[in-house]
């Protein structure tokens, strides 16, 4: 089964089982799911979460409870702007600058611009925890995203900037139906970022994954240099 076949199977299963949640349909996106708040709560009980002061998180709906929990816990949250198409390609949510009653709204994609500060790479601190959305994932940490490759590219950029390293934990929150068999999953490629923790509403899986990318694959990134200013800058410095 190739990646797209696996994506379609998971999207179909979430839809047919009525475990998908708004936005609909789940197809073509990081799918929202029933139990996302409970998965976020499970994540908050992990050592990786409790040790983190700075998170880089994806902006998708199923990880909204994670972003909200982070702000309420006093953690700074960073999200990449769509497709990194900005000279200052990260959105900073600083809970010290956001009233407690506004933190739920600040974590949403529809209101984040009202509360976030756009920052460039030089203003980005070291990241303690990376939160990724997934379409499918295995218990060994192999992740399948929606197919555009931006999550993996964002990791590579952060690594190139020295903001993450091999010890930085990467986690994903998913529905149990998104945890798939190893036999159904293609072998990960060198640029694919594996998950250290897979968190569902019912359990936390420590994957034991290793061997994350240690920078940008410039062969893959070459076609995006014109559309992503930060990539062009890093290429010039390389």
Radius of gyration: 17 Å
**Which regions contain 5 or more consecutive residues with pLDDT less than 50?**
none
Q: Supply the helix-strand structural class.
A: alpha/beta
Q: What global shape is seen?
A: globular
- Major pleated sheet: 8 strands, mixed
Order of helices and strands: HEEHHEHEEHHEEEEHEEEHH
In what range is the share of β-strand residues? 15-25%
- Biggest sheet, strands in spatial order? 6-5-4-3-7-10-11-12
Précis, in short:
The chain has 238 residues and is α/β, with parallel strands linked by helices. It has helices spanning 3-16, 36-44, 47-51, 64-72, 103-106, 112-115, 150-160, 218-221, 229-237; strands at residues 20-21, 32-33, 54-57, 76-80, 90-93, 117-119, 129-132, 136-137, 143-144, 170-173, 197-199, 204-206.
């Amino acid at each position: 089964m190739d990646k797209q076949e696996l994506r379609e199977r998971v999207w179909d299963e979430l839809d047919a089982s009525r475990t998908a949640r708004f936005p609909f349909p789940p197809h073509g996106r990081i799918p929202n799911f029933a139990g996302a708040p409970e998965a976020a709560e499970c994540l908050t009980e992990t050592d990786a979460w409790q040790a983190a002061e700075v998170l880089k998180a994806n902006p998708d709906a199923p990880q909204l409870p994670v972003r909200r929990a982070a702000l309420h816990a006093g953690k700074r949250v960073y999200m990449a702007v769509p497709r990194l198409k900005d000279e200052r390609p990260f959105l900073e949510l600083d809970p010290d600058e956001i009233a407690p009653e506004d933190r739920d709204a600040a974590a949403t994609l529809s209101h984040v611009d009202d509360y976030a500060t756009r920052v460039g790479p030089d203003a980005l601190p070291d990241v303690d925890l990376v939160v990724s959305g997934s379409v499918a994932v295995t218990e060994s940490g192999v992740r399948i995203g929606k197919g555009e490759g931006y999550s993996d590219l964002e990791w590579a950029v952060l690594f190139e900037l020295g903001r993450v390293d091999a010890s930085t934990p990467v986690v994903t929150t998913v529905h149990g139906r998104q945890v798939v068999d190893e036999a159904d999953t293609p072998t990960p490629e060198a640029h694919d970022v594996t998950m250290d923790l897979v968190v569902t509403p019912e359990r936390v899986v420590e994957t034991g994954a290793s061997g994350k990318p240690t920078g940008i694959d410039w062969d893959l990134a070459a076609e995006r240099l014109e559309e992503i200013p930060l990539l062009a800058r890093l290429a010039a410095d390389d």
